[in-house]
From TrEMBL:
Chief location of this protein within or outside the cell: membrane
Domain Rieske: 300-366
Membrane topology field: Multi-pass membrane protein
Function in brief: Iron-sulfur subunit of the cytochrome bc1 complex, an essential component of the respiratory electron transport chain required for ATP synthesis. The bc1 complex catalyzes the oxidation of menaquinol and the reduction of cytochrome c in the respiratory chain. The bc1 complex operates through a Q-cycle mechanism that couples electron transfer to generation of the proton gradient that drives ATP synthesis.
Region entry Disordered, spans: 1-28
Protein name (record): Cytochrome bc1 complex Rieske iron-sulfur subunit
Length: 382
């Protein structure tokens, strides 16, 4: 094996001094308690006793040189940038509007990209800073190691301590306060970022109502009278127009939304409802089958069911007039609308909730109350 034959040079933290070492160059053991030994002597002796021969050891730069200062500044800048990006991540995580807002100017749609970009910049800068440090600042060293087995002697432990101390000194942390400060400022916010997913849930309550109601968003839909000064909420089309019984033909159906601001948007994504005009005989059948909690929920031959599948949340709106079945296109669940929208086929295990209907003074459909049971997949509540 060919190896470089250059003798080890002094560590860079002792520039300009003559190398006076009590350690012999050859490989006989030295007294490690000899006060004349330098730290590097101990490092080299420790390495030698471990079967590692340091063949080449030279600093990258003249200590204190312009080139070294330039590299230190670049690395410090990377760490500070990482800290700034991590801080920006935290600020966005806490303060950026994250709940859905309609409209082209809504800031909420940038929430995830802002988190992703700031975290990516922080990670990249920390990685680049560490790589630049090891590549550009740590001394260049070539060593050959002889492998051996066995536990460490106490002398070896002393030498290992000296080796680790030497490594710390070589890293330049102790004599480069700019890097030390940049590292602290850069990594402190980074540590906070790592803790953000854990403590984030304690900062914001995901059950806070975005409408200022004393309820969790899972506990109401857009049909709650609480959103309408305790007055029943009208059923409206997507364009916000109210609906009279004469607007839906017999055996026809219409998708309706709560007549509150934003009622037809994702702000009330759990509120879409199917208003169905049953044939006389089918309405009779349903009246006979009504669950107790659904008593009084029909208006004439009209019934309204949640349009959110109780299996996984798809819209079960394929209405088979002849069989009175409502089909969900996702996993083929079928709901029998003449029997409280009970699932008769497929993976759904729960009936579609029925919306209590009424007519207001002007003859328009309103929700007599909110849904009496939670809409959507059961696991939403878990
Ligand atoms: S979501 Fe409707 S059957 Fe699966």
């Amino acid at each position: 094996m060919t190896v470089p034959t250059q003798q080890p040079t002094r560590p860079e933290n002792e520039p300009g001094t003559e190398v006076t070492s009590a350690a012999p160059a050859e490989s006989r053991e030295v007294d490690i308690h000899d006060p004349r030994l330098t730290r590097f002597d101990l490092v080299r002796e420790g390495a030698r006793r471990d079967g590692v021969e340091i063949m080449l050891y030279e600093p990258r730069f003249e200590p204190g040189s312009r080139a070294e200062r330039r590299v230190v500044r670049v690395i410090a800048m990377l760490f500070l940038l990482a800290g700034a990006a991590a801080t920006a991540f935290m600020v966005a995580y806490i303060a950026w509007p994250w709940q859905y807002e309609a409209g082209a100017d809504a800031l909420s749609k940038f929430y995830t990209p802002v988190l992703g970009v700031t975290l990516a910049i922080a990670l990249f800068c920390v990685g680049a800073g560490i790589v630049a440090w090891t590549k550009k600042l740590l001394p260049h060293e070539v060593s050959i190691e002889q492998r051996h087995d066995g536990p460490s002697e106490s002398d070896d432990q002393t030498l290992m301590g000296a080796t680790l101390g030497g490594a710390l000194e070589e890293s330049g942390l102790t004599r480069r306060p700019l890097l030390k400060g940049a590292l602290a400022l850069g990594l402190a916010p980074f540590a906070v970022v790592a803790a953000a997913p854990i403590v984030g849930g304690l900062i914001r309550d995901p059950h806070d109502s975005p409408h200022g109601l004393p309820l969790s968003p899972q506990d109401y839909t857009g049909f709650t009278p609480l959103l309408n000064n305790d007055q029943p909420v009208r059923l409206v089309r997507e364009d916000g127009t109210p609906i009279r019984p004469a607007d839906v033909s017999v055996a026809g159906q219409l998708t309706v939304f709560p007549g509150v601001p934003g009622g037809a948007t994702n702000e009330f994504a759990d509120s879409p409802t199917l208003l169905i005009h049953l044939r006389e005989e089918d309405a009779e059948l349903l009246r006979d089958n009504l669950y107790e909690m659904n008593d009084g929920s029909m208006v004439g031959n009209f019934v309204a069911y949640s349009k959110i599948c109780t299996h996984a949340g798809c819209p079960p709106s394929l209405f088979e007039q002849q069989t009175n079945l409502l089909l969900c296109p996702c996993h083929q669940s079928q709901f029998l609308i003449t029997d409280n929208a009970r699932p008769v086929f497929g993976p759904a295990a729960r009936s579609l909730p029925m919306l209590p209907l009424a007519l207001d003074a002007e003859g328009y459909f309103v929700a007599a109350s909110d849904y009496k049971v939670p809409v959507g997949p059961s696991f939403w509540e878990l």
